[in-house]
Predict the structure.
Amino acid sequence: MTQPAPCPDAPAAEAPGIPTASPAPGRRISGAVWGALAIVYVVWGSTYLGIRVVVETMPPFLSAGARFIAAGLILSAIIAWRQGPSALKATRAQLTSAAVVGLLLLLGGNGLVVLAETAVPSGLTALLIAVVPAWVVVLRRAFGERPGIGAYSGVLLGLAGLAVLTLPGLSGDVRLWGVLTVIGATVMWSVGSFSSARIPMPANPFAASAYEMVAGGIGCLLVGLGRGEQHGFVLGDVSGRSWTALAYLVVFGSLIAFTAYAWLLHSAPLSLVATYAYVNPVVAVLLGALILNEQLTWPIALGGAVVVAGVCLIVSTERRGRESSR
C-alpha cells in the first residue's frame, strides 16, 4: 500500500484527509480525467513491483522510512512554493491526528507491506490488499452505520477470496508469515483511513498528507533501527535498480499519482475514481508476472478474481447509495 499515501492503498470510497467531492452526475468525462485515471491505475498498480525491487538490496523499514520522509518533505516544499507557507498551518490537535493517521497508514499499512514483500510476490500482495474496502465496511458497521446488503455480500466475497489466497499450499511457495503480515497491514490501513474522516485533520488535504508521510516515515525509520536493519547494511551494496525503484516510488508513487488522485476526487465521478481499487491488483499481477516472472497459479488467479469481484460489489453498492441519496 503506497500508496495512499496513498497508495495502492486508499479504500475505494475515501482517501485520508481528502474531501470526497465529485462533479454532478451526467457530466461528460474529459480526456484529462481519463489521463489522470490512467496514472492512478498504472502507477499505483506498479508500486508493488517497485517495493519488491527495492527490498532486493535495501532493508524494508529503513527504505520505507526514507521514501516517505523524502516524499513528505518534497510535498511540503511544493505546497509552500505554490500556495504559500500559511497553507501548511495546523493546530496541535490537527498535527497529532495527522501523525496518528500517518503511523497507521504508512508504518502499519505500507511499512508492513514492504516487510511482507521480502517473502510474498508483489502480485499476490496486491490481491491481498484489495480486500481493504471490505475491512472498511466492517468498521463502518461496528460504528453503527448500515452499508447495505450489497456491501455485506461484497465483504463475504472478499473474505472468501482471501481464504483461498491464504490457505497453506494453495498459493505456491509463499511464507505464511508474509501473507499474515499483509493481512495485518490491510487492517491497519483500514483503521487509519476510517479514522482520518472522524478526527480533526489539517484543513489543506495536501498538507495533511505531507504531515502523514513525514510521521509515518519517521515511524518506519525507528522500527527499522529497532529491528537492527542498519547492522551489516552498506549503501555501496545497494543495486542500481533498487535505487531507481526507490526514486520511482517517491516521485511517481507518492507524489504524481497522489496528486492525480486528489485532483480526480474533485473532477470526476467518485464511482469512476473508485475503480482503481479493483484495477490496481490486476495491473500489479500482470507486471509481477511479466517483469519479475512471478508464478501465477490457479488458486491465486481464482482467489484474486473473487476478491476483486467482492470489491467491485462494494464499490457499486456505495455508488448506488450515493446516487439515491442525491
Q: What stands out?
A: The two ends are 32 Å apart (CA to CA). Residues 1-26 have pLDDT under 50 and may be disordered. Residues 240-267 form the longest helix (28 residues). The chain is about 70% helix and 0% strand.
